[in-house]
Design a protein that fits this description.
Strand order of the largest sheet: 9-10-12-14-16-17-15-13-11
Number of domains: 1
Low-confidence stretches: 20-24, 104-109
Radius of gyration: 26 Å
Number of strands: 25
Largest sheet: 9 strands, parallel, barrel
CATH architecture: 3 Solenoid
Mean pLDDT: 90
CATH topology: Pectate Lyase C-like
Number of helices: 1
Helix content: under 10%
CATH class: Mainly Beta
Strand content: over 45%
Structural class: mainly beta
Shape: elongated
């Protein structure tokens, strides 16, 4: 019967200390601050996992993130006068926060008084979360699991192929374009007064605004929901087999451009606005200003519906 080999305690301790040292080396926890009331050029590089996650917060200025094939996060740009940049994280998760050197807050007189420009080159497979106030956000070439953006008044532009995209803006415009067909599986974009423009997202898409304008186009779509209170809705799309397309506005106009050979059940109605369609026959209400349209054009489960209260509805062939 053989004897079990025991690793000497000294070797075990050395291995443990070595692993701890490597972990400490990979950990980043630092603050970069401006000096003498002048802006500061940023130039830092950190090792990073191909599928890690990055969170960036900027109050004013801009954030530009570009995905690439490297295994690092490269930070460039310029830190605004009177600001500081807190960096914290490791190879799997990194946080970057722009704050005022004095006051410790974002809003009112306690927030940064100068613009900060953050430029990040990250691994293509990274997941991104952006928190922006009066700052523009641009993302290109990112193909990780998720992109999440919260913005108050800046413009958000995303050219990416992340599987899930969520963008929530108050007054800034939102622009989303899929890098390739089938890349984005789910997209949810909403604004209060900003406009939304989305192209090429062909899976599950939800777009909503209060007073902004929504424009959507894609070669096909599995599920599309468009909602507005007073803004207009425009979409040019071909529904996939079994797709659901729904557009609804209170006082804005709704205009859908669909394939000439569309095979779907279609329902459209308005309460006081006009209704025009290249499909089926529009029926005027006997009493009242409303109009409606119902077309039984297919039994494969594809459904198209468009509704407006006081806005107009148009269904046109492409």
């Amino acid at each position: 019967m053989g004897h079990a080999y025991k690793i000497p305690l000294g070797i075990v301790l050395a291995l443990a200390l070595g692993a701890s040292a490597r972990a400490d080396e990979a950990r980043v926890e630092t603050t970069i601050a401006t000096e003498n009331g002048a802006a500061k050029v940023l130039s830092q590089t950190f090792p990073f996992a191909a599928d890690g996650s990055i969170e960036v917060s900027n109050v004013r200025g801009s954030v530009t993130i570009t995905g690439g094939d490297g295994g690092t996060v490269k930070l460039g740009g310029s830190l605004g006068a009177g600001s500081k940049l807190a960096l914290e994280g490791d190879r799997r998760h990194m946080e970057l926060r722009v704050e005022a050197q004095k006051g410790g807050g974002w809003f009112g007189n306690r927030g940064p008084t100068s613009d900060t420009t953050l430029v990040l080159d990250v691994p293509r497979g990274a997941s991104i979360k952006l928190d922006l106030v009066s700052a523009n956000g641009t993302l290109e070439g990112v193909a990780g699991r998720t992109i999440e953006v919260g913005s108050v008044s800046g413009t958000v532009r995303v050219l990416a192929s992340a599987r899930s995209v969520d963008i929530d803006s108050v007054s800034g415009d939102v622009i989303l374009q899929a890098e390739r067909v089938g890349a984005i599986e789910r997209a949810h974009l909403q604004t209060v007064s900003g406009n939304i423009k989305a192209d090429g997202v062909d899976a599950r898409v939800t777009l909503g605004t209060v007073s902004g304008k929504i424009v959507f186009s894609a070669p096909k779509v599995d599920e599309l929901g468009l909602e507005s209170v007073s803004g207009s809705l425009e979409a040019s799309v071909a529904p996939a087999k079994g797709a659901r397309i729904h557009a609804e506005s209170m006082s804005g106009d709704v205009r859908l451009k669909l394939p000439a050979t569309l095979a779907a059940r279609i329902h459209a109605e308005t309460f006081s606005g006009s209704l025009k369609s290249d499909y089926g026959k529009v029926v005027k209400e006997e009493f009242g200003p409303g109009s409606s349209l119902d077309v039984d054009g297919g039994d494969d489960g594809t459904r198209v519906s468009a509704q407006a209260f006081s806005g107009s509805v148009e269904l046109r062939k492409q």
